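I am writing to request your help with a piece of structural work I have in hand. Here, with my thanks, is the record as I have it:
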Amino acid sequence: MGPYLGIVNPVLWEIGHIAWFHEYWTLRHAHGRPPLIERCDRLWDSSAVAHATRWHLDLPDRAGTLGYMADVLARQEDMLAGGGGTEARYFYDLAIRHEDMHVEALTYMRQTLSYAPPRDLGAVERPRAGPLPGDVAVPGGRWRLGSTSEGGFIFDNEKWAHDAALQPFKIARAPVTNAEFAAFVEAGGYRTHEFWSDAGWAWREQRGAEQPVYWQGKRDGVWAARRYQAAEELAPHAPVVFVSWFEAEAWCRWAGRRLPSEAEWEAAAIGLPTADGTRLADQRRRWPWGDDGPTETRANLDFAFDGPVDVAALADGDSAFGCRQMIGNAWEWTASDFLPFAGFAADPYKDYSQPWFGSRKVLRGGCWATSARIARPAYRNFFTPDRSDVFAGFRTCAI
């Protein structure tokens, strides 16, 4: 079951929970089928099963858990072979995206717990393309922040698209790299109170943080970090990851920069300038590079590689303004609090967004372990600002 930690679940429980979620929403809720296991809600319903108790439940063993998952899948396939029904489609879309989220969570849980890395999921040879310094200018204007019903499945916290007024701004072409973050560490940034908010400094002192959580200092002049079970050299030009929002905020103060709002991030990712370049156009792209979906030359998603690649790689994925890797490679913290948009109404899975408003920060863009179904430009990820265990880094704006 692994050790108890507040930021992870027992792996066996997590796999069972994924199967339960599929069953609950697609077979039971959408089609009125009875539960496959009588006590399943008492085992895997995350809204009812307290986190600390998940290590002590009478769960099926590994074979039983995987058997339950296979049984759910077979019944889903039977239902879909019969047509499934238009109204039921929403719940299949929801359940597979919930699974996508947990696949990513299982990956960073392996890192947290020093387990072996996933096998045969991505190319081991990651592109070494170097840094990508500099800012791009994004004109101001009206930006339609959020989603509409025209783009397929969306989550309730994306509803609905609404106008946001943006002033012109300059945003980095690429996320902050390991080398750029190391300069902050080496300059004593973790020991200089003035770079930290009061909440951030309290977090740093409580953790005793002197550097990012998995960094292990320099070896022969090169920074090393733990990756799963072993130490390896940090790629200097890959985006820094496993940093909290507090650490991103402190780096920005040290560097004289700031985090973008989620509206600024979204406009830089999929916005277009007017013909004269003086303001944001009313049109937008579906993806930063255009309307066609992600490929391995555009975005490091879906385990295309087995970790983050250099920030100058994947030039085919540039936005209209010249921002690179806004989709995939590393999640990007924004300055925005996770709050509902005007007119928000919870979807049937009411525990997805509503309980967390006001206590988290918004992240955008996805990482190398994120599914393309999740990493749409308008998708709003959200974590508390103290979390440093996810594949999150940050991109900055000029002040």
